[in-house]
Design brief:
Layout lengths: L2 E3 L5 E3 L8 E6 L5 H17 L4 E7 L11 H11 L5 E3 L4 H6 L3 E2 L1 E6 L4 E5 L9 H6 L11 H11 L14 E2 L12
Parallel strand pairs: 3-4, 4-5
Antiparallel strand pairs: 1-2, 3-7, 6-9, 7-8
């Protein structure tokens, strides 16, 4: 469970989503090129699935001392710019990210109505074309930014089907841990 503030200071808790048939908890941040790459399609995914009973909450857990662009004022702007119609919460203590064992941004979790983990994996197979790709001479990833993997998991959950057997982990930037919080598994 969690109770975290949005950039305006309003608290949102896990139990606020109790009526949802499914809940996506997304660990995001503002500066990560992987999050920036999927932010608008992810916001569209949330709008598409809200009427079907899938709630979405995003959490930023990055250390804002080392990454000031991830602070709450920047979070509010990022959410507006990308059309977030779901809460984007700030995990200043990083306790929630540690409890969920979040590793990167984006890191996506889909829970069923009983809040049992159903899916943890990528949004889709698309990736941003970064300066490292250019330096290494790698070709641009041409996979559509459509949320195919997360949508398929939500569809299966809503249809009462078993969780997808193939759950490809998310790829992205590591969570920026405060020195006292750096987990052994990060």
């Amino acid at each position: 469970p969690f109770s975290l503030p949005d950039p305006d200071g309003k608290l949102h808790a896990l139990e606020d989503f109790g009526a949802a048939r499914g809940l996506v908890v997304a660990f995001l941040c503002n500066h990560c090129p992987f999050v920036q790459h999927v932010a608008a399609p992810f916001a569209q995914f949330a709008r598409d699935y809200a009427p079907r009973g899938i709630a979405v909450v995003a959490i930023s857990s990055n250390d804002v001392v080392s990454h000031p662009d991830d602070d709450p004022p920047h979070m509010a702007r990022f959410a507006r710019e990308h059309g977030f119609a779901f809460p984007y919460l700030y995990d200043e203590s990083q306790a929630v990210a540690l409890a969920y064992e979040a590793i990167c941004t984006p890191d996506l979790y889909l829970f069923d109505a009983g809040r049992r983990l159903y899916y943890r994996g990528q949004f889709d197979g698309s990736r941003p074309y970064t300066e490292w790709d250019v330096k290494l001479g790698w070709p641009r990833n041409m996979v559509a930014r459509d949320g195919r993997d997360l949508r398929a998991a939500c569809d299966a959950l809503l249809a009462g089907e078993p969780a997808p057997a193939n759950q490809v982990p998310s790829a992205g930037c590591s969570i920026k841990w405060r020195p006292e919080n750096e987990p052994d598994w990060a």
